[in-house]
Structure prediction request, 213 residues.
Amino acid sequence: MSAIRLLVLGAVRQHGRAHGYQVRNDLEYWGAHEWSNAKPGSIYHALKQMAKQGLLHAHEVAPSTVGGPPRTEYTITEQGAEEFFRLLRDALTAHDQKTDVLSAGVGFIVELERSEAVALLNERVRGLEEWRAAVTEYYTPQDGPEQLGHIGEIMNMWVHSADGGAEWTRGLIERIEGGAYTFAGEGERFVGVLAEGEVNPFATGTPHPGDTG
Prediction:
């Protein structure tokens, strides 16, 4: 699974209606260009592809009154919303997701109801525990990586990664169950999107042809 589809669908959904540069600006504001494949070319390509797939609806916008070029604005379709939530649930549940996919999932976790978010994260913990148990049938962590030669360092790395991932997830579950954050159905949620024209202090400033399209 690629993080870019979830990120782009989520950004458009949060805006309601957005052009490509707004989506790019939001993802750079979140730092997604540093921890995912959300580079300008990937963002604009994803917007066009998902419009072709019926996940987004493309609206042709007339040139601005000050002479700016016309832009395509996007809204999420019903099919796109279904895909967004499918990707979101997969991102939070699967124990073997890449870090960028999990990061994208956490970024949109408050779009779910609190109880569902906790249930999905508990499923992730179970997956990590089951994976660890399968690995340690052949590798005993307390005996150290040397038991398998230098290849044991690979097993050691993954076991420690599973332990760290499970610990972090349990901590997040505890915070959510303790009342942290505002989830769907509980009131107005925090939305980290920039208003039109608002300065982005984390923008890369690197121009791309898609910025004006």
